[in-house]
Amino acid sequence: MKYSLRVIITMSFFIFMHQEIYAGHREAPVTPYGDICPLCGKYGTCKSMMTSYEAHKAMKDYYDKKGLEVSIDNARGRFVRARIIHYGEVVDVIIFDRLTGRVRSIF
Known about the structure:
The protein is of the alpha+beta class. It has helices at 2-18, 52-64; strands at residues 35-36, 69-76, 79-86, 89-97, 102-105.
């Protein structure tokens, strides 16, 4: 009887704790899938490839409206990888395409 009670309590504990395991679980995503930079056209096409400075400014403007900070990790070729920070905590990692203006979460 003691053994079965201990098993039931242990299983209950793991079931309730399992709900809090997922990192980054939020009601609304920080970056909606395939969002578009406001500097580029409606369908995600820019007239020419943005410079690294323009891309950083575009991301900063986009995330400032949401009250978030942008930290550039890597800018190679046409892609820029950046971390999105809220109160010192990384809440998203994104890839920004400088040619199309697409913003995609990879977190």
